[in-house]
Amino acid sequence: MLISPDGKVMTAAHVVHAMDEITVEFLGGETVKARVVASEPAADLSLLQLERVPTGAKSSPLANSDPVQVGDPVIIVGAPYGLSYSLSDGLISARWKPNTVYKTMPLAEFFQTTATINTGNSGGPMFAMNGEVIGIVSHNISKSGGSEGLGFVVTINTAKKLLLEKRSFWSGLEGQLLTDQQADLLNLPPGSTGFMVKTVARGSPAEAMGLRGATMIANLGGDQVPLGGDIILAVEGLKAEAANLTKIRDLLASKPAGSPFKVTVLRAGKVLDVTGKVQ
User: Where would a tag sit more exposed on the chain, N or C end, judged by fewer CB atoms within 10 A?
Assistant: First the structure.
């Protein structure tokens, strides 16, 4: 979703965060290359910068999402299963504070909606009936693999706060936080949990640090977990757990560009430190 005349685009982090190359398609089929300039996987949000803005492209107005209430009608536009510019409508069915409904995205405030959300909708806008954007589509919860009325959308105020108002950065990492049970099964050090690295984007700060992505996806305790890569245990001494994600984010944001920081990882059974630089 284009949000500014100078080519800023908001989308879902899981769509672009660890991609080596990104292109954005506009109405009419024109494509433009883009790069990630800010990202917050803990809220499933990323901000892109286009190489150029196509002639005639218009940015979407961003609303104040705080007044939105349960029962308000909404519209979602996306590309479910590749069917571009498809529209669905529905209602706001619930509102969830950060770190309540979806523990792997503890920084996101979510709208729950009855509007249909399927594969391909992620990263698209949710509009109020006045045409203003009130959220960025994240995901749906489904047992069948289709839409079952449990669609979740990150509020636009969350997006503005994390991507526009606060200093943000892009690591180029994709992965997931381990549960306590998974940490035990993987023989992490006592009292430790961590962030399992799945993918490291080419040319990213994470690649420059030498972090390693997974080599396989395995079933661990009934969940699909990336294995074979690094497990991040701590950043600057702060444990890599949901309760510390905001602290880690704020700590790195407080450091001047170019400042070093330390990441502690578990690699092939050994605990070691790697060093990166704040972008």
Answer: C
User: Which residues are paired to 169 by β-bridges?
Assistant: 39
Name, of 59-73, 81-95, 204-218, the range with top average pLDDT: 59-73
CATH number of 8-50: 2.40.10.10
Give the CATH H-level superfamily of domain 73-163. Answer: Trypsin-like serine proteases (2.40.10.10)
Considering only CA atoms, which of 174, 141, 164, 156 is closest in space to residue 42? 174
Span 213-257, pLDDT tens digits: 999 999 887 888 899 999 999 999 999 988 888 888 888 888 888
Task: Write the pLDDT tens digit of every residue in 35-76.
Answer: 998 888 889 999 999 999 999 999 999 999 999 999 999 999
Report the alpha-carbon distance of residue 157 to residue 166 in Å, rounded.
Answer: 12
Residue 136, beta-bridge partner list: 125, 154
DSSP reduced 3-state for 254: helix
- Domain residue extents for the chain: 8-50, 73-163, 173-277
Adjacent-strand bridge partners of 94: 112
Q: Do the strands 216-220 and 195-200 form a parallel or antiparallel pair, or are they unpaired?
A: unpaired
Query: Rounded to 5 degrees, what are φ and ψ at 61?
Result: -70, 135
